[in-house]
């Protein structure tokens, strides 16, 4: 570990803390449906969209209606993506002549991009036409992100609603208004500027498919090109993570230098940290938002510390052969150990899944942190929207546990937490271990499952475990040695991604609806304070115990066994 | 529930199509137009021309295997530096295959006369398989060989390496191998 390495990490955290409030305020304006300066240009587009689709954006929706509209919208996008991928060979903008994607592959990819997972069984430059990258995948990057933020808004409203509006039932907002505003007034304008920055830094943006060249040594080389920058921008900002190229943000055309790398890491977290502040504003107590951000940051910095330490310590097996320095297998020189370790923890703390280094080749414990981050439910900052609503589910359980300990009725930001909310929160949180461990176990005892891993021994098990965690957690990064482009993995992981997204969302919306209907009770002398150090400690504890303990046995079989093998020099 | 469902049909379909047109067609095409107008070199891959033909990209790595050049890192992209098959080896740290590969590469470097610890990046495969860079140490470790094969004084080759080291504010010091090798060719000893 070096001073510069820690300097980079501290600079990153400092910038995050600085941008949380301004971004949070912007998001709060969208949450409230306020006019922004961008309305001058994009207001007519917003109104046009509502008119053509017959939407009244001011109409409040109850949680069921909100959920059904959200689900049908996502289903329509899913079908559109599936059709475009299947028909790719017949459609234009296909300079490299890629054939249509097979049924299981298209099924997997359509779900993957709809659920904000962006798990990729395929290699972008070898499978996807420019039209597919733009029309099938880029739009999903925007809209799965916008859906996530909309859902976070809905939950915020559940906590924030004080009384029923005159003459109507209590709603949790309007899904269409949320999605449209977030897309038009946040994601799209930021991406236009962001994509230009990327192009200026060396990320291609062209409709050409490739360029042939003759190297200095006289060999032929063909470089894949395409409309990379426009997709790269939303891939990071929307915590999607699906790379234009197979190597993702390790590819020099996606992430050419240290500055683009820093901006990419920031953009993964920017909306997530902003939403913690927005939550505080929504419930009229910004300390609530800062308390959540503090708990997240504690978990984040601890994770970065472990991964950086392990990667910098390097691989003893290679040291024995006379190799000096940290673990550089699967890492790029321009990023080095620190920026690779940091990126890996950022991308898995959020549900991004972009990678600038190959997690599969990390040291066992260095790679365990990204895996654990995903298993915790990606609530450390988390994916856009998904992170904060996931974390609020943990907060509900934390006040419940605190209430049990001191014998008081639990309440959180003025709303009583009762049996219904706790049951729904447990339901949403239990989905994760059930499908991750179930899918891994199934794959570990079937021929089709065991055909997947590249590495042998405990590391092969880690590849399967990481794959299912990544799918259910809607992360999308991989221990990429796993050959996942088979009907077994395409099918199983496709289902896992769908369950991991919507089986969390629907209970969460039900909680939002139930909370919205409750009266707001101001905090009294008997309320458990949900700001301050004690609360932050309790939150961290609940996330680690509930989220982490479930997975300890699986980690012992994978990364921990792998670590012991590595330090004893037992190769497999 | 049924009423929720029917009320959602039209907005779901129409909104999906409208957003597809805006985000999937208008946005990427607009960015392509603006990018090509403002930054044509970068938007087309930062290509480098020499004597009228394209010899590489300033951001993407290419294979250098001959002893006359500074060699690039091992690559797991296709047969090596395949620009249509980016990726890493994905070998785990306790993999026998990895240990064997590194051992063979270390032996090769020792045969060239590299003594002392081997810089890690020189014998490990990058994440993309298209890494354009070497660490300054990995470049310096090749100075003796390059100078010998080209019949140049070591100090002169050493100076070329020193001049090629980039030290970005937020990143690691590194040497772009294509730029270094072009400087080497330009130093008059082809």
From TrEMBL, chain A:
The lineage of its organism: Bacteria, Pseudomonadati, Pseudomonadota, Alphaproteobacteria, Sphingomonadales. The system is composed of three essential subunits: KdpA, KdpB and KdpC. Belongs to the KdpA family. It is a multi-pass membrane protein. Keywords: Cell membrane, Ion transport, Membrane, Potassium, Potassium transport, Transmembrane, Transmembrane helix, Transport. InterPro entries: KdpA. The gene is kdpA. It is found in: Cell membrane. This is Potassium-transporting ATPase potassium-binding subunit. GO terms for molecular function: P-type potassium transmembrane transporter activity; potassium ion binding. Part of the high-affinity ATP-driven potassium transport (or Kdp) system, which catalyzes the hydrolysis of ATP coupled with the electrogenic transport of potassium into the cytoplasm. This subunit binds the extracellular potassium ions and delivers the ions to the membrane domain of KdpB through an intramembrane tunnel. It comes from the Bacteria.
TrEMBL record, chain B:
The keyword Transmembrane applies. Keywords: ATP-binding, Cell membrane, Ion transport, Membrane, Nucleotide-binding, Potassium, Potassium transport, Transmembrane, Transmembrane helix, Transport. It comes from the Bacteria. Pfam families: KdpC (PF02669). One of its GO terms (molecular function) is P-type potassium transmembrane transporter activity. GO terms for cellular component: plasma membrane. Its main location: membrane. It is a single-pass membrane protein. It is found in: Cell membrane. The system is composed of three essential subunits: KdpA, KdpB and KdpC. Belongs to the KdpC family. Part of the high-affinity ATP-driven potassium transport (or Kdp) system, which catalyzes the hydrolysis of ATP coupled with the electrogenic transport of potassium into the cytoplasm. This subunit acts as a catalytic chaperone that increases the ATP-binding affinity of the ATP-hydrolyzing subunit KdpB by the formation of a transient KdpB/KdpC/ATP ternary complex. This is Potassium-transporting ATPase KdpC subunit. It comes from Sphingomonas baiyangensis.
């Amino acid at each position: 570990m070096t001073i510069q390495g820690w300097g980079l990490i501290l600079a990153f955290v400092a910038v995050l803390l600085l941008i949380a409030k301004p971004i949070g305020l912007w998001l709060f304006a969208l949450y409230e449906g306020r006019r922004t300066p961008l309305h001058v240009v994009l207001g007519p587009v917003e109104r046009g969209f509502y008119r053509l689709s017959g939407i009244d954006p001011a109409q409040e929706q109850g949680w069921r209606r909100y959920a059904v509209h959200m689900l049908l919208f996502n289903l329509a996008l899913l079908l559109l993506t599936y059709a475009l991928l299947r028909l790719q060979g017949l459609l234009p903008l296909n300079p490299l002549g890629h054939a249509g994607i097979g049924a299981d592959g298209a099924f997997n990819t359509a779900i993957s991009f709809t659920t904000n997972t962006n798990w990729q069984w395929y290699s972008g430059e070898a499978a996807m036409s420019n039209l597919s990258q733009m029309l099938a995948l880029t739009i999903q990057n925007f809209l799965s992100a916008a859906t996530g933020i909309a859902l976070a808004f809905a939950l915020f409203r559940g906590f924030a609603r004080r009384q029923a509006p005159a003459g109507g039932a209590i709603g949790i907002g309007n899904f269409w208004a949320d999605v449209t505003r977030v897309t038009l007034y946040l994601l799209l304008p930021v991406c236009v500027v962001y994509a230009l920055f990327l192009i200026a830094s060396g990320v291609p943006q062209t409709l050409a498919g490739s360029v042939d060249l003759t190297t200095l040594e006289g060999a032929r080389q063909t470089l894949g090109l395409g409309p990379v920058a426009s997709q790269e921008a939303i891939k990071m900002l929307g915590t999607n993570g699906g790379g234009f190229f197979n190597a993702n943000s390790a590819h020099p055309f996606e992430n050419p230098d240290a500055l683009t790398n820093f901006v990419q890491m920031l953009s993964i977290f920017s909306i997530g940290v902003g939403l913690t502040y927005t939550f505080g504003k929504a419930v009229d107590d910004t300390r609530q938002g800062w308390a959540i951000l503090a708990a997240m940051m504690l978990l984040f910095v601890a994770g970065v510390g472990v991964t950086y330490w392990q990667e910098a310590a390097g691989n003893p097996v290679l040291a024995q052969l006379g190799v000096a320095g940290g673990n550089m297998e699967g890492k790029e020189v321009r990023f080095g150990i620190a920026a690779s370790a940091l990126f890996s923890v950022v991308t898995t703390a959020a549900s991004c899944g972009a990678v600038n280094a190959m997690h599969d080749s990390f040291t066992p414990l260095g790679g365990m942190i990204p895996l654990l981050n995903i298993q915790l439910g990606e609530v450390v900052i988390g994916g856009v929207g998904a992170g904060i609503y996931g974390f609020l589910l943990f907060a509900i359980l934390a006040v419940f546990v605190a209430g049990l300990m001191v014998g008081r009725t639990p309440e959180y930001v003025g709303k009583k937490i009762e049996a219904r909310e706790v049951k729904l929160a447990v339901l949403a949180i239990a989905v994760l271990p059930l499908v991750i461990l179930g899918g891994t176990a199934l794959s570990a005892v079937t021929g089709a499952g065991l055909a997947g891993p590249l590495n042998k021994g405990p590391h092969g098990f880690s590849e399967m475990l990481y794959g299912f965690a990544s799918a259910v957690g809607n992360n999308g990064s991989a221990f990429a040695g796993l050959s996942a482009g088979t009907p077994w993995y395409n099918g199983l992981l496709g289902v896992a991604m769908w369950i991991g997204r919507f089986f969390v969302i629907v209970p969460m919306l039900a909680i939002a609806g139930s909370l919205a209907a409750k009266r707001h009770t101001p905090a009294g002398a008997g309320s458990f304070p949900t700001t301050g150090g004690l609360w932050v400690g309790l939150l961290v504890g609940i996330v680690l115990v509930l989220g982490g303990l479930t997975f300890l046995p699986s980690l012992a079989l994978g990364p921990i066994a792998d670590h012991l093998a590595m330090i004893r020099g037992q190769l497999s | 529930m049924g009423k929720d469902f029917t009320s959602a049909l039209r907005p779901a379909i129409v909104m999906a199509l409208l957003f597809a047109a805006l985000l999937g067609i208008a946005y990427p095409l607009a960015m392509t137009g603006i990018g090509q107008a403002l930054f044509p070199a970068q938007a087309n891959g930062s290509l480098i021309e020499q004597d009228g033909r394209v010899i590489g990209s300033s951001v993407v790595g290419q294979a250098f295997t001959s002893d006359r050049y500074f060699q690039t890192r091992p690559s797991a992209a296709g047969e090596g530096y395949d620009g249509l098959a980016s990726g890493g080896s994905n070998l785990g740290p306790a993999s026998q295959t990895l240990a064997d590969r590194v051992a063979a590469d270390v032996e090769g470097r020792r045969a060239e006369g590299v003594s002392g610890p081997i810089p890690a990046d020189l014998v490990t495969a990058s994440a993309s398989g298209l890494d354009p860079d070497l660490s300054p140490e990995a470049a310096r470790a090749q100075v003796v060989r390059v100078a010998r094969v080209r019949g140049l004084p070591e100090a002169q080759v050493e100076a070329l390496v020193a001049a090629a080291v980039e030290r970005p504010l937020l990143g690691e010091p590194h040497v772009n191998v294509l730029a270094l090798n072009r400087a080497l060719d330009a130093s008059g000893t082809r």
